[in-house]
Amino acid sequence: MSNGVVDVIVNADDLGISREVNDATFELMKDGAVTSATIMANGPDVEAACQQTHEFPNCSFGVHLNVTEFSPLTTSGDLGPLLDSDNRFIGEQVRRIKIDSKLANGIFAEYCAQIEKVKSLGVTPSHLDSHNYVHTVARIFPILKRVQKRYGLRKVRLSRNIYADRLMGKNGLNADILGLDPSIGGQDIGTGLRMKKAFYNFMLRNYYRTKTTDGFSGFRLFYEYAKSHKMGQGTFEVVVHPANDYYDSSEVEILKGPWRDELKVPVRLINYRELS
User: Fold this and answer.
1) C-alpha neighbours within 13 Å on the C-beta side of residue 7
2) According to the model, what pLDDT value does residue 94 have?
3) Using 50, 70 and 90 to split pLDDT, how confident is the model at 96?
4) Which end of the chain has the lower number of beta carbons within 10 A, N or C?
5) Paired strand residues for 83
6) Rounded-to-10 torsion of CA 34, 39, 40, 45
């Protein structure tokens, strides 16, 4: 980033989760709208996704670590507290229960297996993030760092640090449209949680030195914020979820258009390999 230009990584999550998500993501890459994606190694369409990554040498591909959906790749039994009777991950269970040493080892082994799966399919991971942002849970932090050290992966997604202050309620914007938890109502998170996020991001960068962007949020939140605020010097990652019905589809329609022309600062699109 130089000369007042803000560098932005547009990362599509969930690559490999379905054919529809794969097709939508690669279409956006062809158009130059998406510059990066993270691969769900235990997703139903991961093989097809990885086969196509080689068509996009100007994009980066990371691993979307996942212990909240589908079945694990490992079979040791250590993940038992996170699994239902069909051996599938139970949604947000990992956020609700105590992570003892046995479960921590199970999550570590599963994360390693997911990285190995992506590598075995011919993709060299550029960075890490996680499904449902689980890697930002404090109890997962030491597991994440073990994984980073094993694979020498020093680029990881931040915990969100761009907030919707004074945006919700403006021009019909709400938590759903901005890609936020609907339970927050008309306010973004409070000061206490913001401080915890700032501390997490500090530790993420400085314990086993890790390169991150300066800011992270969903694409729509970044877009609306940057239209009304002068963004400081720095690098930003924004996440999109193409063909995912859980997220407001307008984010992709905006992404396809001349959105950069509407911001208060010039934007250059980069990928994670270019983050230095």
Assistant:
1) 16
2) 97
3) very high
4) C
5) 89
6) 90
Kindly give the pairing relationship between strand 235-240 and strand 215-218: parallel
Domain ranges of the chain: 6-274
**Number of helices followed by number of strands (H, E) in the chain:** 8, 7
pLDDT at 3: 60
Name the 3-class secondary structure at 268.
strand
138: its two tokens: 């404090």
Phi–psi pair at 10, nearest 5 degrees: -100, 105
- For residues 233 and 130, what is the distance between their CA atoms, to the nearest angstrom? 26
CA atoms within 13 A on the CB side of 177: 15
The confidence score (pLDDT) of residue 229 equals 82
Q: What is the pLDDT of residues 115-139, one digit of tens each?
A: 999 999 999 999 999 999 999 999 9
Angle between helices 141-151 and 191-206 (to 10 degrees): 20
Q: What is d(CA 46, CA 15) in angstroms, rounded to the nearest whole number?
A: 7
Distances (CA, A) of 9 to 110, 206, 210, 222, 247: 27, 22, 17, 12, 19
First-to-final CA distance of the chain: 10
Question: E strands, the chain, where?
Answer: 6-15, 36-39, 60-65, 128-130, 215-218, 235-240, 267-270
